[in-house]
Amino acid sequence: MKSKLRGSGSDIAFNVILYGVSGIILLLMAYPMWFILIASFSDPSAVSNGRVWFWPADFTLLGYREIFKRGDILIAYRNTIAYVAAGTFIGLTVNLSAAYALSRRDLVGRKAITLFFVFTMFFNGGLIPTYLNIQRFNLLNTFTVMVLPFSVMVYHVIVARTFFSTSLPGGLLDAARIDGCGNLRFFFTMVLPLSKAVIAVIALWTAVDHWNSYFNALIYLQRAPELHPLQLILRSILVVNQASTMWGGDAVAIQTQKIADMLKYSIIIVSTLPIMMLYPFLQKHFNQGVMLGAIKE
Known about the structure:
- By secondary structure, the chain is an all-alpha fold.
- 74% of the residues lie in helices and 0% in strands.
- It folds into two domains: 60 residues, no CATH class; 235 residues, Orthogonal Bundle (MetI-like fold).
């Protein structure tokens, strides 16, 4: 009885320590995002004076008003949503197709093709040759340049290929062939329904990449401002306010600096909130797909 009580006491102590450490880690990870949220609704003077800790101080919506008073914000939101939807669909199509083909052991030259894919992860032609190539395909200043040329992600292909190789039963294709099922039908009716986890992972990764992307738009959409994504518009707002702070007078500079400080927090919330709202719905598949895709072949 005493040993049992001692064991129970040890378990209780262990649980207390475990929950305490987990709570501290959770606080350290969650508080920075919470601070950014409350700082975006607080007066910049209160933030700089250290009066913002757990709740907004001198509540204001000035930062969000400065962002949304520009008419191009809603257009940029529309463009970004379109890039995410189209880019995710195209990315899933090309990456999953390539991954399934490379997972088939009867593919002629499978290792050489895989090596060719991996080679591009470490070496590429550079920015100028890529720009000239896109220019020759007449893709500059078009919607297509944001979703098609960079849709193949070798890391996504490797993760999906590993998933297909280790998770799909080896005799499933043979059984399907006996019933008269071809390769294309087998891929859509058998492989994809059994691969929801890795599809969710790659879809989330691809969507986040397109949502945060601004460099491609900065390079390839210079003459098409109506196609600029959200991140590029928010970047321009922040850069313009910082420039105004540097060149303004004393009183103007102080006021502009306050607006710029507030804009930093508001821009982070505006740009990350949609992805943060999407993640909880895909978290289960995301965790499962990462673990399954990480198993070595």
